[in-house]
Amino acid sequence: MRAVGDVTSLEYMTHHTPRLDHVVLWVRDPVAAADFYEKAVGLETLRLTEYTAGEVPFPSARVNDETILDLMPLTFAARMTMLPGAADSAGHPVNHVCLSLPRGDFDALLSRLEERSVPVSDLSYDSFGARGQARRSFYFRDPDGNVFEARHYD
């Protein structure tokens, strides 16, 4: 690994390139949402104990070492006043969030969703994404209607 100043190139990339840190999802019941993301999607939940104890405003689910999903109570939408007009758009879902997984994790996710009778789309093949053409992908919704795409490239 090449050194850039006093840091390695990986450290430089980690700290000096844009990264997706988190996505805020509006959910009706953060505890139920955390359960879904842990058991159906297979993500690690964060701060759930603290949330249920009233110590933090929302729990999260870890996508990877750098990215989390914040499971924000929909009741907080009216509090979005950090910018003029922000409350008017708060609570509106994004079109979808895409999870890129290794092939085995992709297959395991599809199986867990089917075991829980979560509706999934038909498989798509060779769809374009951040890393080129994904081999397979499909869509599903969480219990709050947020749409996710799952894909694998390998």
Describe the overall structure.
This protein is of the alpha+beta class. It has helices at 9-16, 30-39, 48-52, 86-89, 103-115; strands spanning 3-4, 7-8, 22-27, 44-46, 60-62, 68-73, 97-100, 124-129, 132-141, 147-152. A four-stranded mixed beta sheet has the order 3-6-5-4, with helices on one face.
Could you give a short description of this structure?
This protein has 154 residues and is an alpha+beta fold.
Task: For this entry, give a set of tags.
single chain; alpha+beta; 4-stranded mixed β-sheet; 5 helices
Instruction: Name the structural class.
Output: alpha+beta
Strand order of the largest sheet: 3-6-5-4
Report the C-alpha radius of gyration, rounded: 17 Å
Share of helix, binned: 25-40%
The average pLDDT value, as a whole number, equals 86
Count, helices: 5
Order of helices and strands: EEHEHEHEEHEHEEE
Oligomer, anyone?
single chain
Sum up the overall morphology in one term. Answer: globular
Distance between the termini: 24 Å
| Count of extended strands | 10
Unreliable spans are none
Write the layout of secondary structure elements.
Blueprint: E1 3-4, E2 7-8, H1 9-16, E3 22-27, H2 30-39, E4 44-46, H3 48-52, E5 60-62, E6 68-73, H4 86-89, E7 97-100, H5 103-115, E8 124-129, E9 132-141, E10 147-152
Parallel strand pairs: 3-6, 7-10
Antiparallel strand pairs: 1-2, 4-5, 5-6, 8-9, 9-10
